[in-house]
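seq as requested:
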Amino acid sequence: MNDMETLRLNCSETTWSGELDVCQVCSKPLTGKRRVFCSDKCRRWFASNHVWRFARRLARRKSKYVCSRVDCTVGREGGLEVNHIVPRLGEGYGVGCWHHQDNLELLCHAHHVEVTAIQRAERKQG
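struct tokens:
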């Protein structure tokens, strides 16, 4: 079993409230050999919003592989990196809701360094 199969996550973006034998995304009854998700669609949604490697891949694709900053002159050439808008603060990249697509943005390396420096300064101030 992998992390997604054993995880019982109560995510605010799902309808699942902890009951067994229903999908952890949409709460539909599980059928056949399914134990966590009712369909591949629900499994993919969960992975794309909770598992870092899948969330990062989708964030890049959704941004069309271009830095999300309007004023960016580097665009695709600047070593693109996926940034957590609400920073992880060194807490790692395990499975969790912090990888929701609305908390991710694609930045060139220069903008990622800039955003991280601002976040660090804000933490020191307050």
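The two ends are 42 Å apart (CA to CA).
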